[in-house]
Amino acid sequence: MKAVVFVTAVLTASRVTAWQFPPSAQKPLAGFAVDDGGDDDIDILYGSQFSGLNTYARIPYVNCFSDDAAKDTKYDIAILGAPFDTGVTARPGARYGPRGIRTGSQRQYADAAWSVYTGKNALKSWATVVDCGDVPLTYLDNNYALAQLTKGHKVSGRSHEYVNLRGWYPGVALTSVFLLRSSLRGKRLTRVTPRYPGSSCSAVITRRRSLRCGRYGSKSLCYLCASEGMRKEADGNSLPNLDTWDPLVLGGGISDYAGLNHGTFLHIAHEEGLIRNTSIHAGIRGPLARRKGDIRNDERCGFARLTARDIDRFGTSGIVSRIRDRVTGPVYISVDIDVLDPAFAPATGTPEPGGWSTRELLTILDGLSGLEVVGADVVEVAPAYDTRGETTTLAAAQVVWSLLELMVETPATAAVDRAS
After folding, report:
1. From 46, 132, 343, 366, which residue has the greatest number of CB atoms within 10 Å?
2. What are phi and psi of 81, to 5 degrees?
3. What is the mean pLDDT of the chain?
4. Does pTM surpass 0.85?
5. Is 336 within 8 Å of 377 (Cβ atoms)?
């Protein structure tokens, strides 16, 4: 009874104190004479990162694949998407990764991107950064799609005033997001860096081919990933996805075509001499199919390993120091988003429990400052499996930013210039 009386009292009071319209009509645009054409002070070009066509961090779009469109645009770093996922052995969907990462980057833009940790802003530096969009890749033929991606790297990464892509040939790669670096302070050169996270791992090999045959020669690979894990093939047999897996074992038993997938690309890269024996996996935690054979083949391909739980022993600083001690010379960084625990990045093709947190990964990447990063990517982002809050694409977009900062911090040196 008391409750009813109280509610009645409140309602009665609200009638008495209800808000009243002001005596004169409101004028929301008071001070802006829009009716008579006096709107020169109204800015409709800038002021919101949520308007216009979607590019990474609102950077300018350039059609890097057309000479006519790009010939008058000089850029130092380009972001490139590779919407491809037909080389995956688990959950497809990474073809939508580049689009998802661009959406996840909407909170970032040049005028409000100063780092609270370093005080720097990669978009307010010596480098001109552009978004090249996505390479058009067929989803019907993996070999042709990877040839398209290799050519996309070649064309978008070349300089329009300094071209030196000797011995280029088509390559193998799966969908992902790349940052392409096309200059070294003053010289417009080929350089691929992270951009459009979200594709399948195989795309990494095409980037590495274009980098080697362009300006940088072979390089160390820092690969942040969960797998050395088990994947189920269509015939039900369990096979490991080391990403250094021999094509004759993973898929090659079916056909040569099937041997090209996201579990074999690092093996192929090693066989082609694209990576040095000073490379490293970090964040590994998936189970093995062969207790010793998988590790032996991984080491033969030039890789040392840091497991996900090594961070509990050494901390982020220990992980950073071990990566820096391992890699030498030019470095290519590939971030498979499944290096993060599914709690932080559920939207991936091969989720593996027990991974790193987003903060730990970003701390490790920032700790690699000073390395000569000649290329990078973010792969395996499949937005269809993400949360309503877009947890994975937000994390991937921030990883792209960290990779961009590394490239801006230390400009790369071409192999021919290093030799001289």
Report:
1. 132
2. -100, 145
3. 75
4. no
5. no
Calculate mean pLDDT across residues 309-331: 95
Summarised one tens digit per residue, pLDDT across range 263-281 is: 677 777 777 887 888 999 8
Q: Which of the pair, 186 or 412, is modelled with greater confidence?
A: 412
pLDDT number for residue 24: 64
- The length of the chain is 420
Alpha-carbon radius of gyration of the chain? 25
What six digits make up the tokens of 224?
């942040």
Domain ranges of the chain: 56-419
By the 8 A CB rule, do 396 and 197 touch?
yes
- Identify the three-state secondary structure at position 229: strand
**Domain 56-419 fold:** Arginase; Chain A (3.40.800)
User: What percentage of the chain reaches a pLDDT higher than 90?
Assistant: 35
Give residues with Cβ within 8 angstroms of 405, minimum separation 6: 115, 118, 120, 122, 366, 369
Half-sphere exposure of 263 (CA within 13 A, CB side): 31
Number of alpha carbons in the 13 Å side-chain half-sphere of residue 68: 0
